[in-house]
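Lab notes, practical 5.
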Amino acid sequence: MHILVTGAAGFIGYHLSQALLSRGDSVVGIDNLNDYYDVTLKEARLAQLDGQQGFEFERLDVADRDGMEALFAKHRFDRVVHLAAQAGVRYSIENPHAYVQANLVGFMNILEGCRHQQVAHLVYASSSSVYGANELQPFSEQHAVDHPVSLYAASKKSNEMMAHTYASLYGLPCTGLRFFTVYGPWGRPDMALFKFTRGILDGTPIDLYNGGDMVRDFTYIDDIIEGVVRTTDHIAQPDPDWSTKAPRPDTSYAPYRLYNIGNNTPVKLLDFVDAIETAAGKKAQRNLMPMQDGDVPSTYADVSSLEAAVGFKPSTPIQAGVDRFVAWYRDYYHV
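Output from the prediction step:
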């Protein structure tokens, strides 16, 4: 298949591109290589993809309407996997306009391109952040997500609503994937695992918010990619049992689906730090901090819908995943 991967220089986009190329798909990757975090890391990911048979890269911002129209006019994509976004809960408080451009305007351009080209399936990244103030756990796609606590979360919820509109109006099959705290080699420097590993190896204090009393459904990158690939192949269909009197938010009369992708095994933040210490062979200097605005104390994914649909659920143990990340970090940074 000929597949567009947006955000191809990003953490998940890089790994997905590798997986698709390995199975024989051709991939057009786009990324604007912005400086939200170290651009050299993004360039290093791209260097791993560059020259591989079937891979083509174009530096392009999804919010560039003319550029996106030209891209879709140039190619006939069988599938589109839209991962490009302005990420980060805390950064959305500092720079809200970036989220409007990347996550709303950019997503609009993707939807329009898919509609006019009649793409067979659009798969896009949502986030566990959409669950917001909801405390009923494990988080289920059937729960209401109407109370976001960050603009990032609101932008991802907006993507889900926009996708449903296009599925309904134009019959565009759309599947949204709510990722739960993805980690692993080539990860993002703004994520906890990266920061903690750097701090522990450098001997500098690490900040633990809410006094370390946090729980996350950490999900290893290989599990995420397996779920994305299987979902991409599993084209969203209308739900024949969907009812206007008891409407499920994760399915529809239109070709529309939402799935959680999480490890289904939440881990205490302090246990996560213990795992990093074990992998690094060093103890952390722990700096206990108050809760940050826009953050939530706990995430926990119900992945039964994903498992029923594509026959897969994440399962990588936290210590195994952390060991692989720390080994990559040591190799990449020569420490």
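Observations recorded by the TA: The longest strand covers residues 26-31. The radius of gyration is 19 Å.
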